[in-house]
Structure prediction request, 232 residues.
Amino acid sequence: MQCRFLIYRFDPEKDAKPHYQTYTVEAEPTDKILDCLNRIRWEQDATLAYRASCAHGICGSDAMQINSHICLACQKLVRDFTTGGNFVIEPLPLFRVIKDLVVDLEPFFEKYRAVRPYLITDEPPPDKERLQDPEEQKTIEPALRCILCASCTAACPINRADPEYLGPAALLRAFRYIYDSRDSARPGRLADLDNESGAWGCKTMRWCTEVCPKGIPVTRCITQIKQAIKQI
Ligand code: SF4
Ligand code: FES
Prediction:
């Protein structure tokens, strides 16, 4: 079928303001949107900029807006949209556009680093590995699926209104260590999040959970952080 792509274009070095450019692509209903973007770049316009790597929902690099839905271009097929082969492709909202569909994710990773996204322990290193109880592992398993695509943070209305708010992805990573019995920084982690820029900034609007391409119950995990804070 013939598909029409209206794609957001903006090169700050050349353009005074963003514009949309139309491309026509021959595609199968089972083609991924990423396949179509690749075809446009490889066969029609090598100047089109977007990020992608794995093409299988693993690396998290091709989050964007497709017909106003935040999703991964490699996880959506042409047939997933009931728009008669018409697509509007835009960059993730919230973040500064570097070029076309490529946004500056440094503020996202800055917040991610702020929650100390690594195991902190007072225990001396074991001979082999730090074992974890399988039941405890189940609690944090959803958070381990996060691929840092930034979809949740881009979708979150609180993040859009308050630049100081850590946002769902960073809070999810904090949850992953707060509920890891091998981590000894739990009290400090909870104290750091006991404010409006942290866990209490979340107003359970659930947009993060709705857009997460890995099906992670992000809002529920943030709620579990709030519960842990109340028990301090
Ligand atoms: S929680 Fe989901 S939407 Fe948010 S960064 Fe991780 S994978 Fe992406
Ligand atoms: S290209 Fe890696 S998640 Fe889509």
In short: The pocket of FE2/S2 (inorganic) cluster (ligand 2) is lined by residues 52-55, 57-62, 72, 74 (CB under 6 Å). The beta strands are 2-9, 19-26, 63-66, 69-72, 86-90, 97-99, 102-103. The longest helix spans residues 218-230. Residues 38 and 48 are 9 Å apart (CA to CA).
